[in-house]
Structures are given as structure tokens and as C-alpha cells.
């Protein structure tokens, strides 16, 4: 019988249970489902603040909303630039456009797809307002180097942690706490979920004030029915917050389980011929990489493993020789293993929308805008990156099946 791999679209792949049902009943029986007057969303914010050691946490309706709040906090003028990665969900970029700012795509480190600080540094100009880093697949980005760049140039550093719940940075701090604002997602496919939902964390009182106002239509509740600034309704409901609180209690176990089986797979693959560990290190500078960079050394038929340090394992990525990712993905899929090449159809710097007006018939402030090439990102998406779905309910049996399928692929190559 084919081994079933649990996924996050079914009960067997989630940690939803009696605790979430009881949380929903608690809210419904209270009669108050709106977080303005309820207690669940405020309690969730307090618990997230405690977990992340942040002075402020702001709950909102989605991970994309959280990113929008973070861009609002950075306060770009129309036409200002925000540097980000081309390998990410469009929810990272949409808030930049929503604030009439310009996304500038920096290339990535080919070993893991996270922003290359040197590429970011080369793009900083007079209109740059912020850097938005994504901890891709749960792997820690080179956030120390990016924070140094932000501080040097007076920029806001935003950390998109949608895929990086409890990801650890060098030194042990959590991803989301090294920048000026960190964002979290509670969407269906994340480590924990309430269907949709998001949070931001920050230690900055003013940034928190801007985000909280924007999430509630710019309404300063203490001043009565008075709207201080532009805002949208990004409020999280009490139902979302109650489920999120029940899920939050399970988060350490979810991440620990993913780390345990991911470590087993790293160990199982490590000994295979042609499989190497990625040697990416971070220091206080703009990033120092140990060992050979993935994507160099043409002709070496190697598979590069992800580095487990701090990883939260939203997905399990592999970097392969050029052109091998689609072939291995097909091989794994035929064995019943949920794997796919590239993660995205196109990196966002090549998305079709840049060829069309963004706002009605207007291109402002993107007149003449064409994102620059990002060769490392394009190579990853086109031919070298493979991702395997990961789940807290995987067992050693699942790990063995994946390792055996990769072993057989290597033997046939």
C-alpha cells in the first residue's frame, strides 16, 4: 500500500482538534465576535508579544494585511522604493504597490533562495525607504547583514516570517525580532492556522501606533469617532483569534516535530554520493559564505542540502544541478511524495503584471518600470530548486521513503 503523506488541507495534516472547537464555542457563547470590544485578539497579541519578546504585537486579518501594516509603518512616499526578493508569495509585494511604492527586486543566494545582502547593498539609492526580507521556507535569512545595511542607510527593515514561525537567527533570537517590524501569517498552509490571520511584532512605539491605526480605519478609539489617518479594516475577528490562541499553544510541538524529521532526512541524504551540505554562514559583515556556492562548479552533479541551523521547515528544499529539479520532482511524485520544482512558476521580477497598468489605466509611479534580472533567483525557479512538502505528522517512515526515492534517482542518473 502506498504510504500517505499528510498535508495541511486535511485533518490528518493539521493539529486542529477539541481545543479549537472549545475556543470557538467560548467566543460564540460570549455573544461578542468583534475584536474591538472582545478579549481574544488582545489576548493573542499579548501572548505573541511574550513569545517574541516584543513590546507590541498587532493582530490583523491576514498575513498579507500584516505585511501591508509593515509597509505603512515604513511610511514610504509615492515612488519610494522597497527592496525585496523575487522568490516569495505575491503577498509580500502587493502591499508595496498598495502604498504607491516601487518594489525593487534584489537577487538571492543560490544556496537557499534568501536575499543576498551584497545584491541588496548594490540597489540602495536615494529613493530607497525599506528592505523587506523573507525567511524563505523557514530558513533564516542573512538578517544581521541586512540590519547593518538598514542602519547604515536609515532604512526600515521588515521581516516576512509567514513561513518562519520560531525560526532561530544566529545567537538564538527569533526571526522577526531583528528588524524594525516582523510579520506572521496564520493562513491555512502555515505552521499554525486560523484559516486566515496575521500579526506584526515590533519594539517601536510609533511604528506600532501607525500599524494599529491603519488596521482599524485610522480610528483613534480613545478620541471618539475621529479618524486620524488613512486606514483599512484589517481587524482580526474574535473567532480567528480564539482559534489562533489554541493553535499557538501547539506551535512548539509543531516546529519540534518538523525539525526532528527534517534532521532525519538531512542525515539520511548526507551520506549519498553527490550530496553536499550547503555552507552558508553569517558574520557581522554583509554575509560570508563558507564552502562552494550552489550554482557554481558547473559539471558537478551534486544535490545541495539545506542547512538545518535555525530552520523551521515550512518546506524541505533541495538545490540540484541545472535542469535536474523537474526530473527529480517527477520521480518523487511518481513515488507518492509531494514534491515540485521551482516553488513558483516565475520569480516575481518576471511576473506578467509588470507589463500592464497597475492602477486602472495608469502606470504611476511605475512609468517605464521593468524589474531587473535576478540570475540566481531565475536559475533556482527555472531549473535547480525542488521543494518537498513538510508536515509535523511525518514519521521516520516518511523520511525513509523520501530518502529511498532520492537514492534510487541518484542510482539511475
Automatic annotation (TrEMBL):
Pfam families: DegT_DnrJ_EryC1
Cofactor: pyridoxal 5'-phosphate
UniProt keywords, alphabetically: Pyridoxal phosphate
Database matches in InterPro entries: DegT/StrS_aminotransferase (IPR000653), PyrdxlP-dep_Trfase (IPR015424), PyrdxlP-dep_Trfase_major (IPR015421), PyrdxlP-dep_Trfase_small (IPR015422)
Family of the protein in this entry: Belongs to the DegT/DnrJ/EryC1 family.
Listed PANTHER family: DTDP-4-AMINO-4,6-DIDEOXYGALACTOSE TRANSAMINASE, TRANSAMINASE
Protein name per the record: DegT/DnrJ/EryC1/StrS family aminotransferase
Species for this entry: Nonomuraea maheshkhaliensis
